[in-house]
Amino acid sequence: MKKIAVIPGDGIGQEIMQAAVAVLRRTTELYGIDIQLQQYEAGGTAYDRTHTPLPEQTVRAALAADGVLFGAVGGDRWDHLPPALRPEQAVLGLRKALGVYANLRPITVRPYLASYSPLKEEIVRGTDILIVRELAGGIYFGAREEAAEEAGKMRAWDTETYSVSEIERIARTACIAAKQRRRHVTSVDKANVLATSRLWRRTVQRSAATAEVTLDHMYVDNCAMQLVRCPTRFDVLLTSNMFGDILSDEASVLGGSIGMMPSASLGEKTGLYEPIHGSAPDIAGKNIANPCGTILAAAMLLRHSLGKPEAAAAIEHAVDAALQEGWRTADMYRDGMKRASTADMGAAVLRQL
Amino acid sequence: MKKIAVIPGDGIGQEIMQAAVAVLRRTTELYGIDIQLQQYEAGGTAYDRTHTPLPEQTVRAALAADGVLFGAVGGDRWDHLPPALRPEQAVLGLRKALGVYANLRPITVRPYLASYSPLKEEIVRGTDILIVRELAGGIYFGAREEAAEEAGKMRAWDTETYSVSEIERIARTACIAAKQRRRHVTSVDKANVLATSRLWRRTVQRSAATAEVTLDHMYVDNCAMQLVRCPTRFDVLLTSNMFGDILSDEASVLGGSIGMMPSASLGEKTGLYEPIHGSAPDIAGKNIANPCGTILAAAMLLRHSLGKPEAAAAIEHAVDAALQEGWRTADMYRDGMKRASTADMGAAVLRQL
Ligand SMILES: CC(C)[C@H](C(=O)O)[C@@H](O)C(=O)O
Ligand SMILES: CC(C)[C@H](C(=O)O)[C@@H](O)C(=O)O
Question: Where does the record place the Isopropylmalate dehydrogenase-like domain (chains A, B) (predicted)?
């Protein structure tokens, strides 16, 4: 019996999670996988009820689970809170607690969705990138100091920091992933300016030397450009935490909608799975959000945390089939297509399983 | 008599600067502007001759000049050098010496070039963004420490830091610029994670309150996405040094080629003008680089440092006219167009003056 902690979070988190949970249940029934799903709170809604964005109980349950399926957190309503109480602390705190350091963000442009991209079809067609983003270090978790103008502290700072071993383990993840793909790794840095980037470049270079992959290095500014100019040139994109945050959101539009994109965060133990989009408070509760990112995150959970690649592939094919049938949520709706609510889209995927 | 320091730098810097200098000379003759151009060394080629990427003489001349026109620096050949001797130190050192803190990067999609964009024409058409990037602070100039694995120093770090006054002065630049445009400023940060970003957001909010502009705040990851999804929504984009580096390179492709894009770096005194592209060692010496970015940087010099808006506009119109005549360097060449070398493109602009 595998335990899955389900954390819908804020905003559209509730609705997309409902659709994803239904798909996950059905798939595990079909494949005879014994799972127990239990729901937990996190984010701004958790803060409203419990005065913390990440209740102890949620952390304990996540640590005890075999996999965690996460929706999204955040919203303007909680923007005035002090940093430690903001909804984002739920996701940062969970990543920290679970020790997940490798964030995998596959960016695939499905052929029948290529025309939905803001880029020209001939440029995005065939794009298939795996972003491997370091998730436990860098400027996200370095020492920092808030400014407090009233107290005369007129300067704030944050520290970007990486150690050799932190870089080595994420480089290893990228190389292993590349071997199951087209065996090419592009490592992103700003080595012409940053000390951490120079260490990053040297360390990745050394780590990749023994892996059977080709490696190149690219400055982050150039990479931000090449992702739009020629996305098909990339196979595995290896990045620090901050650069990966920016580049993966940028890359997410290549396939037409960020709503389609899942992610897996892996460490030594329990994995954390989430769509890469946010909580979209403006459309929350309207039953129009795209649940596919979360559904595909559930597939990644089956693959990486439960070791069930066939069940994972079944979900991925069902999503494909539902889209090919013409179902489109509002983020991708176009004349002539079948307009789907969040629930409709979930149901269309279920029917294809 | 106005003194202009001309610094071609490395790689294609030489060839593009030649074209730009010819245009600048002719324009100032036509408009009766008395200038004296003098050439100085910087970058890897300067290092090869003088063992420093930024000779004292160059710094002194830049400080004494009314404006500095800069080409590009860098190349793999110098990548093995210790950080303090690398070609990039020339541009970082010059920015520091001149005290320039506001980097203006106009991103305009010319109607007749919209089809050259990797984005769909209907998405980029009408894009007209001014990126105002803070240039004298942030993680570029914060304290850092290199790792030295042999010496057991297995960790490197860099510091992102901003003070209230640094943020105020760049916010002021952005608001002033916005007033001459569509009066909207989008300020970019990562306030859900970084202390510097929270100070950035509060300070910009306060500064803009009295300026007659509308202001919104956007997370950097979302901004990287929106620049591709819907670039026409932006007017002035206000960013930190690092975020501006990434976003401006990303945005530079909207208009079809980074080779077209100029920039101005302004402070209290002498301004520094450069194309936003790099030194492109792979095509250096081939007479195929696009000189328009540097030519348009010379126009910005006339406008911002010499107070000659008509002469600046004359250059901008001449570039437009040459492109509309069909002249295209290799980065933008297409069947049916007139193939231009670097020199041809310069000559075509000259003829239009
Ligand atoms: C919510 C935020 C803290 C988070 C991040 O920056 O990592 C998000 O943008 C992401 O990419 O998962
Ligand atoms: C050469 C490099 C140091 C520089 C920067 O990062 O500022 C360049 O990329 C730029 O944007 O002008």
Answer: 3-349
The CATH number for B38's domain is 3.40.718.10
- Give the chain B residue whose CA is nearest to the CA of A252: B225
The whole-angstrom separation of Cα B67 and Cα A251 is 38
Which atom of ligand 1 is nearest the CA belonging to A73? Answer: 1
pLDDT computed for residue B151 by the predictor: 85
Question: A274 and A248 share a domain?
Answer: no
Q: Looking at the whole model, is its pTM more than 0.90? A: yes
Domain residue limits at B175: 102-259
d(CA B34, CA B299): 15
A35-39: strand order across its sheet = A35-39, A2-9, A67-72, A271-275, A262-266, A102-108, A128-134, A236-239, A184-189, A214-219
Which among A149, A156, A225 is the nearest to B161, CB-wise?
Answer: A156
CA pseudo-torsion sign B288, B292, B293, B298: positive
CB within 8 Å: A195 and B160: no
pLDDT 10s digits, B323-352: 999 999 999 999 999 999 999 999 999 999
A262 is a domain residue: no
Q: What total of structural domains would you count in chain A?
A: 2
Which chain B residue shows the shortest CA-CA distance from A222?
Answer: B249
| Angle between helix B309-324 and B342-352 (nearest 10) | 120
Compute, in angstroms, the gap from residue A250 CA to the centroid of ligand 1. 13
What six digits make up the tokens of B192?
């859900």
Atom of ligand 2 minimally distant from the CA of A193: 3
Indicate the pLDDT class of residue A79, thresholds 50, 70 and 90: confident
Q: How far is CA B248 from CA B132, B276, B320, in A?
A: 9, 8, 22
Which residues lie across from B130 on neighbouring strands? B106, B236
pLDDT of residue B169: 97
